[in-house]
Amino acid sequence: MTTGSPQHDTPHHAQTVPVPAEFARHAHIGSRAAYDDLCAQAQADYPGYWAGLAREMVSWKQPFNQVLDESNAPFYRWFADGTLNVSYNCLDRHVEAGLGDKTAIIFEADDGTVTRHSYKQLLEKVSQLANALKAQGVQKGDRVVIYLPMSVEGVIAMQACARIGATHSVVFGGFSAQSLRDRVEDAGAVLIITADEQQRGGKSLPLKAIVDEALSLGGCDSVRRVIVYRRTGGKVAFDAGRDVWLHEVMAAESTTCEPEWVEAEHPLFLLYTSGSTGKPKGVQHCTGGYLLQAALTTKWTFDLKPDDIFWCTADIGWVTGHTYVAYGPLANGGTQIVFEGVPTFPDAARFWRMIEAHKVTIFYTAPTAIRALIKAAEITAEVHPRNFNLGSLRLLGTVGEPINPAAWDWYHREIGGGRCPIVDTFWQTETGGHMITPLPGAHALTPGSCTLPFPGIDAAVVDETGKEVPWGQGGVLVVRKPWPAMIRTIWGDPERFKKSYYPADLGGTFYLAGDGAIRDVETGYFTITGRIDDVLNVSGHRMGTMEIESALVSHPLVAEAAVVGRPDDLTGEAICAFVVLKRARPSGEEARKLAAELRNHVAQEIGPIAKPKDIRFGDNLPKTRSGKIMRRLLRVIAKGDAVTQDTSTLENPAILEQLAQAN
Ligand code: WT7
């Protein structure tokens, strides 16, 4: 294991931003002492701490008596003898409490059309779809793949699965037919919910056609039905024996549906994500522990109150769109924005215009979006946030990648008007919810640092043997105790789960996050220094280098490929591919054409987000005498730096010069 190095600026930023007194006064967790007290409670009685919160935050059908079961570690179980339903917790209980008419979702479509959806309306639609799924034969434990755009229907589909105990697997609408097929097959899905098309940035893009293609690739015999949401009215092929319209199957059903009460450990969803090796893994999340942390982190990290207008810009295809769109805000009875479009359409002021129009109070987005909008505002004065009234905002958040202090400062000043705290939330698909994050009423902020663990999360920075390193020294990030929302297993591959996250060299009981980290010498604040494995983070999206390499090598002309990341001002990291062809190394126009072809090929195999930014052709790749590709050197070349490292173990040192020149 090697520790990563910071990608941007410096991890130690002198400036600290104190907690605004006014914010702290009204906050759920309103002081450092309150935070410390929660941590002390967790320290003194770990299961007791979580059990108390689980009783407070979650409505149980059958209350639990067991809290944490470690008998089959690392396959931990939480609240295992309790039963509950997530959709009941997100909808029914608010309606029962008299909040039926409260707006749950303010939906803004790509073209600017706004619709409002109350808790009662949402509950009725979720019940109708839940009934429709049952009518189509979907049973508790069956997997349903959701391949939908950002939409109220997407949230309804997830909630409807939860209502009947079906396990959903949302696939981001940007993934290709091949990727969709792989996920459908791995999950053994019985049904797919999709849309005719998606509408983004003024353009219609196919979804149903991609489902058709995915299913025609074979291996998806488990799929009996495809439910199609009519979004654009675009023409789609219809298989009369397999496909049905969402509005038709819903209209046929009652607006009430008794929730299926499931055990706390029942799998709520699978979400595929990239690892350092092999194919994407289906991260399996449970019901009870996941819901607890989705609800609790939404409440504490975002300081969510009944009158807030919360906006998380993440797509439901990613974990952020699960925990902080589909579940967390609804579990708290909050009001949130769901946005179909993109930040740059009709212009790069879309976010700022929407914050003003909807009086958004809490705004949560990715550093990559902030950096892109900074650039846009520098070029075009009309899209600068200063043209908009952002005075409704009281809290900002970021997620997905490190935020460089320059972007942090701009976000704080231009969007937050200098008054809004910024919660830089570190977490992962596997963790289910925030792990290391400021609580905005409790922590002074240091730009670029995610500050301290969420109360109850036992995060630490350790060396290769699992020993904690002193503050100020880099190491690997681990979590030493199991937590309620943690990944339960990799779907169908428990061995891979154990090997990936509980490696023996760390003692087998520490969860290995896969990131490097360093703690500030004085404050103990954590700064994440980047992945320590072969996982790239491009615009906050996780990409496995091996996956991209396999996609490249599946092209008939490619003999060998190595993919590395290089720092990029806008996307955090950019994908850089070194390719050896089965024929002579191309140059000039031929190289440009081939690079374009290979990029499209990767988009076909995985999706446009995986397209390499740079492709360089070489006669060979730098290898050790035993044939191992020296990625370390490729990273240096990709960055445009001179190779100063020792290259004496290289079989073919001359190749370095060739690759450095190829572009
Ligand atoms: C990886 C997880 C968590 C939801 C979105 C991404 C990186 C995430 C931060 C942050 C620095 C971060 C890590 C992590 N990451 N948040 N605040 N600061 N890095 O989920 O796709 O599972 O990716 O994203 O490298 O391991 P994901």
UniProtKB/TrEMBL annotation:
Q: Where is the Acetyl-coenzyme A synthetase N-terminal domain?
A: 35-90
Q: Which residues bind Mg(2+)?
A: 553, 555, 558
The terms under GO molecular function for this entry are: acetate-CoA ligase activity; AMP binding; ATP binding; metal ion binding
The job of this chain, per UniProt, is described as:
Catalyzes the conversion of acetate into acetyl-CoA (AcCoA), an essential intermediate at the junction of anabolic and catabolic pathways. AcsA undergoes a two-step reaction. In the first half reaction, AcsA combines acetate with ATP to form acetyl-adenylate (AcAMP) intermediate. In the second half reaction, it can then transfer the acetyl group from AcAMP to the sulfhydryl group of CoA, forming the product AcCoA.
The record lists the organism as Aquabacterium soli
Domain AMP-dependent synthetase/ligase, by residue range, is 98-484
Catalytic reaction annotation: acetate + ATP + CoA = acetyl-CoA + AMP + diphosphate
Q: Does the keyword Calcium apply?
A: no
Concerning PROSITE patterns, the annotation shows: AMP_BINDING
What are the residue boundaries of the AMP-binding enzyme C-terminal domain, all occurrences included? 547-628
Q: Which family does it belong to?
A: Belongs to the ATP-dependent AMP-binding enzyme family.
Record GO biological process: acetyl-CoA biosynthetic process from acetate
HAMAP family attached here?
A: Ac_CoA_synth
- Origin organism lineage: Bacteria, Pseudomonadati, Pseudomonadota, Betaproteobacteria, Burkholderiales
Name of the protein this chain belongs to = Acetyl-coenzyme A synthetase
InterPro entries from the entry?
Answer: Ac_CoA_lig, ACAS_N, AMP-bd_C, AMP-bd_C_sf, AMP-binding_CS, AMP-dep_synth/lig_dom, ANL_N_sf
Please describe the post-translational modifications of this protein. Acetylated. Deacetylation by the SIR2-homolog deacetylase activates the enzyme.
Which amino acid positions bind ATP, per UniProt?
400-402, 424-429, 515, 531, 542
Q: Where does CoA bind?
A: 200-203, 320, 539
Q: What GO cellular component entries does it have?
A: cytosol
> According to its UniProt record, which cofactors does this protein need?
Mg(2+)
